[in-house]
Structure formats: C-alpha cells, structure tokens
Amino acid sequence: MFWSKIFLPTLKDIPQDAEVISHQLMLRSGMIRRVTSGIYTWLPIGLKVLRKVENIVREEMNASGAQEILMPMVQPKELWEETQRWDKMGPELLRIKDRHERDFCLGPTHEEVITDLIRNNIKSYKELPLNLYQIQTKFRDEVRPRYGVMRGREFLMKDSYSFNLNEESLNESYLLMKEAYKKILDRLGLKFKIVKADSGAIGGDASEEFHVLAENGEDTIAVSDSSDFAINTELLLEEGDAIESLQGKPSPDGKGTIQIKKGIEVGHIFQLGKVYTDAMKASVLDHEGKAKNLFMGCYGIGVSRLVAAAIEQNNDEKGIIWPEAMTPFEVNIVAIGFDKDEKIAKAATDLYNELSSMGYEVMLDDRKDGYGTKIKDAELIGIPVNIIIGKQYLQNNEVELKHRDGQSSIGKVEDITTIFEHYKIS
C-alpha cells in the first residue's frame, strides 16, 4: 500500500475528549472516528488490526471444535420475556418497535436466541456436546460511554455457547474454552490474568474473567506474587473494607502475598447450568428416552476491546508499539525525495515489490513530506520496521533499517532483503 493512496487521517494533537491512551492513539493514528457517543467508524488501518484479532479468535475457536454461525442483532421481546430479562436488563437494553408496533431489542448478548435455536433443532443426547459461536456486533446502551472503543455502546464481540447433557460434560466444554482463550491472548502477545469473578446479569454458578494488565484498567484485581491466583477485589473485600487493606496480605490459595493490579476485562466465561434451558424448556432425550434439560455454558471475548487493551499495554511517548500479530503493516519504506528523484523512487518501489512478493505487509511512504513528518507518523501508527531510503542511498547505495524500539543499522539494499529472508512472517 502506498501511503498517498490510503485513507489515513493522522492527528498531531491529542483530542480533548479522549481520556485514556488507547482512545487518544486510536484517534491520532487514524484508526477510528467518532460518529456519536460510544459509536465509532473503523477506518482502513484500524480495520486491518481488528480483522487480525478477529481471525486469531476464529482460528482458535475452530481449533477447539466450536462451529461458527451468525445470529441476528435484532431480537424479539417474546424470547427475552421467557427468561424475564426484558425487564431485568433495564435501560442498558435498547428497545425498539417495528412498523407494526411489535417490540424488539438490539442484542447485547444472545443467550435467548441460541437457546431457542437449540430447543427447536437438537432432540437427542447423541447430538451433544455442541458449541456454537459467532463474531458479531453487539449494542449495550451504556449510561456513560467512555474510553473510546473500550467502553462503547456498539462493539464487536465473539460469543459462544456450549450445550451439554450433564455437569461433567459442561465442565469439559468450559475448560476447553478457557484454554482457547489463553491461546488467543498468548498469540496476540498480551500479558493477562484469569480472574475469579461475579456472574452478574448473565447468571450461572461459576465464571472467570480474562484481564489484560494495564495502568488504565477499569477493574482492580488482587493477584498472588507467587502463583496464578487472581480475583476481582469486589469478591475479596468484606463490606466497608478498602482496597488498600489487601497491597501484602497472604494469598487465599496459601501461595505468596497479594498484589493489587489494574486490568481490562477482555473476556468472560460462564458455567450457566440450567438457568436458560429451564426457563426456555430446552431439552433432549437421554439414552433412556427421558427428556432432560440441557446444561449450558457461555463464553464471550471482546474483539474490538482487545485492540484498545493491546494499545493500553503497548505504547510509549511516540505512539503505539504493536505486538507482532496485530501490527497493520510489518514494514514501512520511508522514501525521502520520492517525488523529486527517480533513483530513490525506483529503489523504494523495487524494494516494496520484492518484500511484498516475500509475503510481508508493506507500506511505502511516497508523500512529499520530509523525514520528520514521515517517521513520526510511522512511530505513531506503530509499524515495527522502517527502511529509510534517501541521500545515503544516492551517495553510498545504503539504506537505514530503523526499528520501532529505536535500534537502527545501515546497510546495502541487497543486504536488507537478505535480512528479511530470515525474518519470521506472522
């Protein structure tokens, strides 16, 4: 992609309404633009990152044996009344009417729709266990949308639902999803903790949250310094206690002491049991021919929130530092004088074509701007490697290889392509 051709409106100044780093950098780097409160348009470079996250999520879900479907965003009131959540959800549930005055909502989640699908199409225990998932837009009418896509009203989410004949099978599905989520976050290169949590409005017997560790995290979690133990402080504090009463107490698992961290919740897995299947009478015939209501699990991961969380965890004063798996472009060719010198233009274009043919995602900065503007934009966007072609090329046939972490080296063009032959392509 040539820089002059891509829709990439970067900003020099920090937008006044952007409170956290991820929101600031996503606006400044031209990833998103605000439509209205809590609702954003994803621009080309932002969408590239979002799709990379989505693809990793999809690959790990498929590898776990889950099957992808797509359910409607618009859901009828009748299904939500069966579980009594039409009223329980309160104003967070955006209710609408069609031209016939029938009631619907924009789905914040899909337990009712998926349970209705299963009760009408799965009849025998032989068809279980079954895990279905979707990657789809959700809408929750947040009372105070903030932090950009971190807490928006409209967002992209992967939600999956397992159906099992008994508790033992449910536990197996739950652990399978737990491992899948760990693989997703590992592949994305994020530091995270698995936290014991409250099931909240979704319900069920047991649940765990996946938190990406970051200074601007909305949640406060207590973690052991010597084990994997982690829990939302809300579940550990007794009434009236302050969080500070926890900064050195023995960990409840008997290993190490408690530390307080900030986390961004990016995933949540639930053992729902029969909360929805009892309410909606979703049953199958067991091996004795008796009808049994199903056990159910629910597993959500915020695809768009993962993008913001990654930025919160990986940035510096210059801009974004993408984990390898998430970067929109792997290489940026900074051509100084592209519009003025044919030799520079040809060298930059030839290198662009060669690296592209090797499988790299390459950007060529062919703009008329000088080195300062070009390198600042590249650092803001977070491209891992910049190859600078300018005066040194004309004088000595040399180019500069500059990494996002500040390291740089000088070499011949042919040496640069040799170096890249040994790079691992994500």
UniProtKB/TrEMBL annotation:
Enzyme class: ligase
Keywords: Aminoacyl-tRNA synthetase, ATP-binding, Cytoplasm, Ligase, Nucleotide-binding, Protein biosynthesis
Chief location category: cytoplasm
Gene3D superfamilies referenced in this protein's UniProt entry, alphabetically: Anticodon-binding domain, Bira Bifunctional Protein, Domain 2
Residue ranges of domain Aminoacyl-transfer RNA synthetases class-II family profile in the record: 33-323
Top-rank taxon, per record: Bacteria
E.C. numbers: 6.1.1.15
GO molecular function, one term: proline-tRNA ligase activity
GO biological process: prolyl-tRNA aminoacylation
Protein's cellular compartments: Cytoplasm
A Pfam family reported for this protein in Swiss-Prot or TrEMBL: tRNA-synt_2b
Listed InterPro entries: aa-tRNA-synt_IIb (IPR002314), aa-tRNA-synth_II (IPR006195), aa-tRNA-synth_II/BPL/LPL (IPR045864), Anticodon-bd (IPR004154), Anticodon-bd_dom_sf (IPR036621), Pro-tRNA-ligase_IIa (IPR002316), Pro-tRNA-synth_IIa_bac-type (IPR004500), Pro-tRNA_synthetase (IPR050062)
The keyword Flavoprotein belongs to this UniProt entry's keyword annotation: no
Reactions accelerated catalytically: tRNA(Pro) + L-proline + ATP = L-prolyl-tRNA(Pro) + AMP + diphosphate
Cellular component GO terms held in the UniProt record: cytosol
Statement: the UniProt record of this protein carries the keyword Ribosomal protein: no
Quaternary organization: Homodimer.
Protein name per UniProt: Proline--tRNA ligase
Lineage of origin: Bacteria, Pseudomonadati, Pseudomonadota, Gammaproteobacteria, SAR86 cluster
Protein encoded by which gene: proS
